[in-house]
Amino acid sequence: MTLMLQLRSKPDPDRSPCRIRRGARLVGAMVFCAALLALGASAGAASAASASDSLAKPGVADQGGVQLQVFLQRRFRLPSASDVEVGPLRAAPIPGLSVRTVKMHNDAGQAATFVVYTDAAGKTAILSDVEAGPATPGPLHGLWSRPLRAANQAPGSPAKSVLITDSPGKAIVGTMLDLSKDPWGRISVAKLHLGDRATLGPDDAPVTIIEFGDLECPFCARAFSEIETVVNTTYKGKVRLIFKNFPLNIHPWAMQAAIAAECVRRQNPKAFWSFANDIYRDQGAINPQNLRGHVNAYVGQLGLDQQALNACIMAPAAEAQVAQDRDDGIAIAVNSTPTFLVDGIELVGLPSDKTFKYVVSSELKQRQASR
After folding, report:
1. Can you tell me whether residue 149 is helix, strand or coil?
2. Which residues pair with 19 in a beta bridge?
3. Cβ–Cβ under 8 Å, residues 214 and 354
4. Which positions ≥6 away from 266 have C-beta within 8 Å?
5. What is the CATH number of the domain that holds 295?
6. Which of 230, 257, 234, 235 is nearest to 246 (CA)?
């Protein structure tokens, strides 16, 4: 069985990313798929309930709740601690586990309610937006059926779905979270080709942002000025941006634009950013037939050598580097643009200013603390 949990009640059309076409593959920054079943009664029920009760008593510091709040805030890139409301710990119906209700919301006014089960050690959690009701004999012989209701639904309200199992034991449907691991879920960039690329900011900046972008993607165009502000103004001298081309197969002229942009960079690295800005500005007027005319006009305005640029476009080297960038993205499961990696922390689409500042500021604080 597969469930899809989403913090956003509906997608934000102004900040959603451009996506690569890959059949029916399910993608999304806040998608969870998993199911954990079984767990009957055990002798550990009394001790588990005792631990849960002690944490729920007034006046007792709920360190587990604080740790869970921080973990979820980072996991979901929520800029404020108040965006994660962690309820009191209580005994779960399954021995050995405790449960809380957690509400998460963002600055767009979107919200979701979850139930979070944790083990006695506080190292493993199960996050779910549904609660499984009691088992009853199912429609087929030997199978059992449980109603699944949204975490914020009343117990007697109509079920949103049913869970069918071959035993009447208690059940949880959700995703496993290892609370002992880095909640950011960083992506290793060790194997990415980052040298000889378009960059902004000092090479020794404490924070590195890698952007996978598509010059035909309208959301990349919107992100362009915002990321430039982050690098050149908000965190000037503290952030380095590396741009990697990721032309999507749904965009007919993105690949050729990326090759032209790479040739501009090879001739004059600083001119790359002006060229990209021109492309993004005129996206609506560009098509496969007139792309070359636009490129020639931009190159002329930048004072570049047109003949040398044409030779570069026709040669295989620039196209090979663009293909290498795209292969790098595919290797780390990039499937939409823009995708940003802030020291390996993935931000997909066009994050809000608050989200970007939260992630970058958190990384800067960590760098300062580790000195």
Report:
1. strand
2. 336
3. no
4. 312, 318
5. 3.40.30.10
6. 257
Q: List Cα–Cα distances, 117 to 3, 114, 129, 239, in angstroms.
A: 17, 10, 11, 38
Q: What is the number of structural domains in the chain? A: 2
**Which residue has 């199912």 as its token pair?**
138
Query: What is the pTM for the complete model shown?
Result: 0.82
CA dist., res. 79 & res. 95, Å (int)? 35
What are 302-361's pLDDT values in tens digits? 999 999 999 999 999 999 999 999 999 999 999 999 999 999 999 999 888 899 999 999
Helix or strand or coil: residue 176?
Answer: strand
Tokens of 6: 């989403």
Q: Which two tokens stand for residue 248?
A: 């999507």
Separation CA 271–CA 297 (nearest Å): 14
Looking at the structure, do residues 362 and 224 belong to the same domain, yes or no?
A: yes
Residues 6+ apart with CB under 8 A from 192: 210, 244, 328, 332
Identify whether residues 203 and 167 lie together within a single domain. no
Range of the domain at 87: 34-178
Distance CA 89, CA 241 (A): 42
Residues 173 and 204 in one domain: no
Contact between 209 and 199 (Cβ < 8 Å): no
